[in-house]
Request: fold
Amino acid sequence: MQRLFSSFADGWPGAGLLLLRLLAGSGLLYGGIVSARFALDTAQMVPLILAAAFGAMLVVGLFTPFAGIIVAAVEIWIAFSHPGYRWPQIGLAGLTLSLAMIGPGAWSIDARLFGRKQIDLSEL
Reply:
């Protein structure tokens, strides 16, 4: 899993990634929950619920590359299957693809699960 991440950025770059994850994920959560309430049938609800679920994964930084790619595909699906203004979905797809390429940052669950570990040999 370490190969999926170039590094887990810390400091100001890590704070920027955290902000990017929070903005993209909260936009997905809000859009998915609000739009799913007004969906006419279950077929319209499925991509919205998927986007909200993977948006929650992005907020906490869990499996960020996988979640980013899936959310980008779902947002493109939503943009071209639902009538109306498409630019918010295309913008969220771009944000989540960039998160998938850059990685989650040091303040994420991915960093805790798959980041570099310090081994203390004196305890052995």
Summary: The chain has a mean pLDDT of 87. The first helix runs from residue 11 to 37. The radius of gyration is 16 Å. The CA atoms of residues 117 and 123 lie 15 Å apart.
